């Protein structure tokens, strides 16, 4: 009965605190990103469909592949037909001290209804060919995996948990209201647990909703057949994994920042220390790696973000997962780490003294 | 189970800064006032009593319980701190009710206790308004209601009369008296020595983290030997009586009262003085009243802690 009473009291602070509004913005940012992406893709899809409709005959991948640099305008038209969308302009190019030459530039755009081929002709000769792939779930799920790992876990959930969980003790010390709790007949360990569960409830609701909305926004651009196919294949398990990772991230980072609350006056210091620790995880010795939340979460993400050649060093460091661990060990690892951190925090809270004048 | 609050050689240091030092107290039920200048250790003593801070040395027992037993102790203790703060966004009713639920009371009982506490501080009409919109006095009263809502046997109140208008002050003091009459400990701190004098069953005078004196105020006064006791005598012939009193060796000073209907005598031996007053009446003086003039908190405070501190 005590813990639900604590959760009820904390509800306003965790869900509706004015100083926590940025947490919602952080959670909704990737939703907005995927929604805008979907809307743009849908619009582009309509344009491509229209282009395909205007073509003399249905074009294929093979037709697109047949176009190469150096071909003449006539060759292109012979191969693909008259372009449904064209544009032209002339450009003056300096050829000598006072000599200029005008180059006629034409752009032909073709589409097979999904993909788009853009051909650039200079003075009637193909100078460049650009290919834009249309809607494809495979590519988008890969992009989603990157955003989920780099932005959602490492920034949105990380800083969101910082805002929610550090506020539970530190915020009350700043507001000079923590003593109301400490003067009630409940053990401080129970108070800690109650506050943790209240924070966890808020974090899980906010970020799981965000994750679901992100996926919904991403899938919005696809037709029902594509979505059904995705869900039938491995979509459902991917979605479940993303939600599971979200919940575990809230559990892990929540415990860390709840423990940091009574220790650090300035949340930025706590955030900086934990962020650096989490970021250098791949280069830590094997034993120390285990004292990191991201170490376990990386192995639980359903789509691996591979290291692309030319990737910036920081991203490469963040993306690398040299020693993936099994799913069960990873889940157990996050939970065990959280229990250890909460136990240490309980010890600290048991001897916590209220002396607002020095806080 | 003892009914006392016991401090056994308690010291509290904040790093190198002294909070209180070597405090030994045994506080009985009733109204006990902690009196002392700023920084004398009043709030430290209260925070120690309620477990918000831990003693560096010594031990504290409140009705035989220690602050390490919150599940039992805080059913018996209520504390209204000096901090003008309350959780954001709550109404007065929600503030009292929400914390009562943490005591394990069910919804109905919590509602009953909440209204009772709110009625005791006279805030029923404002109960459903946000605490943030209350006046300073109302905020003080709602925090007072929150601290007494669970019917504690020990009520610790840091500057409880601050910000209250005269009428509410009188009602609050009456409430303290009623609680004390029911056998509660009401421990309060105040800078208003006049009120302390009226309210308190006993006082604890603090100075620089040390207990300068404790107990019934008259008892404390009688133990101060450095300052002769002042006694006001209302009579018909003050000049003649002054001449008569000066024949006694324990009379050190006499002043005729401004209204010429009495005199103020200082004696180094109050017992002999009162014995003398019996004979005076037989000598034909018409004595209307004889009353100690400086056995109030203000005088005791001035003698023990210093005149400069009283004016702070």
What does this protein structure show overall?
The complex is a heterodimer of chains A (359) and B (312). By secondary structure, chain A is α+β, with helices and mostly antiparallel strands. Helices cover 64% and strands 10% of the residues of chain A. In chain A, strands 1-2-3-4 form a four-stranded antiparallel sheet. Chain B is built from twelve helices and 13 strands. In chain B, the strands form three sheets. In chain B, strands 5-6-7-3-8-9 form a six-stranded mixed sheet, sandwiched between helices. In chain B, a hairpin with a 5-residue loop joins strand 11 and strand 12. In chain B, helix 3 crosses helix 4 and helix 3 (92-101) runs parallel beside helix 5 (136-148). At the A-B interface, helix 1 and helix 6 of A face helix 2, strand 5 and helix 3 of B.
What is the CATH class of the largest domain in chain B? Alpha Beta
Multimerization state: heterodimer
What is the element string of chain B, with H for helices and E for strands?
A: EEEHEHEHHHEHEHEEHEHEEHEHH
Helix content of chain A: 55-70%
Largest interface: A-B, 29 and 32 residues
| Structural class computed from helices and strand pairing of chain A | alpha+beta
Q: Strand share of the residues of chain B?
A: 25-35%
Spatial strand sequence of the major β-sheet of chain A: 1-2-3-4
Q: How many helices of chain B?
A: 12
Radius of gyration of chain B: 23 Å
- Number of continuous helical runs of chain A: 13
The best one-word shape of chain B is elongated
Secondary-structure map with pairings?
The complex is a heterodimer of chains A (359) and B (312).
Chain A lengths: L1 H14 L5 H34 L6 H5 L7 H8 L4 E10 L5 E12 L4 E7 L2 E8 L4 H39 L2 H5 L5 H32 L4 H37 L6 H13 L6 H4 L3 H8 L12 H7 L7 H24 L9
Antiparallel strand pairs in A: 1-2, 2-3, 3-4
Helix pairs in contact in A: 1-7, 2-5, 2-7, 5-7, 5-8, 7-8, 7-13, 8-11, 8-13, 11-13
Chain B lengths: L4 E10 L2 E11 L2 E6 L6 H8 L7 E6 L7 H7 E4 L11 H10 L5 H14 L15 H13 L5 E5 L7 H16 L3 E5 L3 H7 L2 E6 L2 E6 L1 H6 L6 E7 L2 H8 L5 E6 L5 E6 L2 H13 L4 E6 L4 H9 L1 H4 L2
Parallel strand pairs in B: 3-7, 3-8, 5-6, 6-7
Antiparallel strand pairs in B: 1-2, 1-4, 8-9, 10-12, 10-13, 11-12
